[in-house]
Amino acid sequence: MQLPIYQVDAFTDKLFGGNPAAVVPLKTWLSDELMQKIAFENNLSETAFFVPNETGFDIRWFTPTVEVNLCGHATLATSFVIFNVLKYDKDIILFSSKSGILKVRKEDKWLELDFPMQESSIAEAPDGLIESIGKKPKEIYRASDDYMLVYGSQKEIEDLKPNFGALKHIKARGIIVTAKAKSKKLDFVSRFFGPGSGIDEDPVTGSAHTKLVPYWAKILSKTELTAEQISSRKGFLKCKLAGDRVLMAGKGKLFLKGKISV
């Protein structure tokens, strides 16, 4: 069986920037085992699979090792393929997912994700977290399945060199680290570490911003924010807190299209 496959750099307008995701369109679902094997073979932080339904598409996301309930950059990559390669003739895509209905709106070259907001609460650091990250934060929060660590400066975020082998044992999907941006053109910056999910450092993490945006909206007393994930590839997001939803707009760049044989 041959399947089409695309690879898109998400949350960037530059090739080799942002976060690469594989996108595999399907007519009907494959077995969970086969989708996981395809994701493992792709060896990207996420592979998205989608199937048409009556109102839009069903979508699922796999890291090389596990299925996840929500992924922003792979949803943006999937939307890029649907709009720009498959020539979808509507301005809004509705995805049915394990995190509910997700809406993606096209506006010129921007794709705006409409995701559910995720609240965070003050938390204690689990054993090994601070030692694994390498620097004590100002504040620690638990945000759904992630920990969120807030630091005093962007430089502290840039200088972090986590021990990924040790960090893998922290019971969480991932660790978000964040600080106020040093540039006046940005509001906040972040990085995301997820060795427990098979990803040492994720280049750009849309789902993390469903937790970051509510926090920074409160701290900065504003609902529209600009953000950069300062991984080596970097990614830019225009964000907005809209009630209990987080809107995240980004761009995409097609890198690869081809077929896989399974």
Write down the overall mean pLDDT.
Answer: 96
Number of continuous helical runs? 6
Sketch the major β-sheet. 18 strands, mixed
Strand content: 35-45%
What is the tally of beta strands? 18
Q: Which shape, going by the Cα principal axes?
A: globular
- State the helicity in percent bands: 10-25%
Order of helices and strands: EEHEEEHEEEEHEEHHEEEHEEEE
Give the radius of gyration: 18 Å
Low-confidence stretches: none
Distance linking N and C termini? 5 Å
Given helix and strand content, the structural type is: alpha+beta
Task: Explain the layout of strands and helices.
Layout: E1 2-10, E2 19-25, H1 32-42, E3 47-52, E4 57-62, E5 67-68, H2 72-85, E6 92-97, E7 100-107, E8 110-116, E9 121-122, H3 129-133, E10 139-143, E11 146-150, H4 154-159, H5 164-167, E12 174-180, E13 188-194, E14 199-202, H6 206-220, E15 224-229, E16 235-242, E17 245-250, E18 252-261
Parallel strand pairs: 2-3, 4-6, 11-12, 13-15
Antiparallel strand pairs: 1-2, 1-18, 3-4, 4-5, 6-7, 7-8, 8-17, 9-10, 10-11, 12-13, 13-14, 15-16, 16-17
Protein architecture, described:
It is a single chain. The chain has 262 residues and is of the alpha+beta class. The chain is built from 6 helices and 18 strands. It has an 18-stranded mixed beta sheet that branches. The longest helix has 15 residues, at 206-220. The model has no long low-confidence stretch (mean pLDDT 96).
